[in-house]
Amino acid sequence: MQLLRSVRLFQFGLRRNFHHGGMKVAVLGASGGIGQPMSLLLKMCPQINHLALYDLVKTIGVGADLSHLSTNTKISAHNGKEQLKDALDGCDVVLIPAGVPRKPGMTRDDLFNTNASIVKELTEAVAKYSPKAMLCIISNPVNSTVPIAAEVLKKYGVYDYRRLFGVTTLDIIRSNTFIAEAKSLDVKSVNCPVIGGHSGVTIIPVLSQCKPSVIFDEEEAKQLTVRIQEAGTEVVKAKEGTGSATLSMAYAGMLFTHSLLDAMCGKSGIIECTFVQSDIIPGIPYFSTPVLLGRNGVERNLGLPAMNNFEKKLLDTALPELKKNIEKGIKFIN
């Protein structure tokens, strides 16, 4: 009963916070470790009237299971490449969590060869069948897979920088959680911008700009930063080879999607940190910063937040690695 009550409260919260819309959202990789829990969370979003699930295998079962939830979101399940067109037809938002997960000892970059090919193939389908959709990339390494998606869309002549996002929301929710724990704050009141990229040293939590204001000495800031940067590895180790941070990533993907849908429905003042095409730093064509979202995606890039000396050093360390990751993605297509 308690669980049922929690689900109802969650749904009520969504109903209260969202304009009703008639959005079609597709999850490509819906049978996977991130895809399944994320689809469950999205099924509870009243703004989505059609949730299309796509994967190579097991999609029909996932769809049947989710279709029994008592929400108004219609589920369609699409199994195998020949059904990808139907999944994408008329989509407003496409999420790509497809790919192989990390195992102990692997970095996000080790996933490159497998996941790069998957993202390339799926983005080609988006370019053909749903070129106007907002495209949200979750498949790692995001620092490389977002440039891959951009290059594919450019080849098809349908690239719009405002409509392509690397979902880095997990770095923000981890930062908020760890800060709240360290300072005994209500996590719902904490908001810390995280800039840069989405792996290792490219993840830059700007602790000095956290709201509410929190004070850490340099040693504390260093330890907290490393924990945020290595949080994914922490989960991979804890799962002892059985998976990666799938549940928290599903939650992060849902939060970003909700913000994007809200903005698309005309709600103003929606700001999210996300990895997008950027001219904020010369020579770094993609970068995560706070972005104002609107009906057409990126309305305005809000640029770099103010940073202290420690954070500026983090940025200096991040840039060569980020540049290398981005170039690797671009080179994969060209």
Automatic annotation (TrEMBL):
Binding residues annotated for NAD(+), in chain numbering: G29, A30, S31, G32, G33, I34, G35, D55, N115, I138, S139, N140, M249
Family as reported in the entry's similarity comment: Belongs to the LDH/MDH superfamily. MDH type 1 family.
Subunit structure, interactors included: Homodimer.
One Gene Ontology CC term in the entry: mitochondrion
Stretches assigned to the Lactate/malate dehydrogenase N-terminal domain: 23-166
Protein residues bound to substrate: R102, R108, N140, R174
The organism's place on the tree of life at top rank: Eukaryota
Name this polypeptide is given: Malate dehydrogenase
GO biological process: malate metabolic process; tricarboxylic acid cycle
Keyword Protein biosynthesis: no
Oxidoreductase among keywords: yes
EC number(s) reported in the record: 1.1.1.37
Annotated NCBIfam families: MDH_euk_gproteo (TIGR01772)
GO molecular function terms noted in the UniProt entry: L-malate dehydrogenase (NAD+) activity
Domain Lactate/malate dehydrogenase C-terminal residues, every copy: 168-332
Alphabetical list of InterPro entries matching this protein: L-lactate/malate_DH, Lactate/malate_DH_C, Lactate/malate_DH_N, Lactate_DH/Glyco_Ohase_4_C, Malate_DH_AS, Malate_DH_type1, NAD(P)-bd_dom_sf
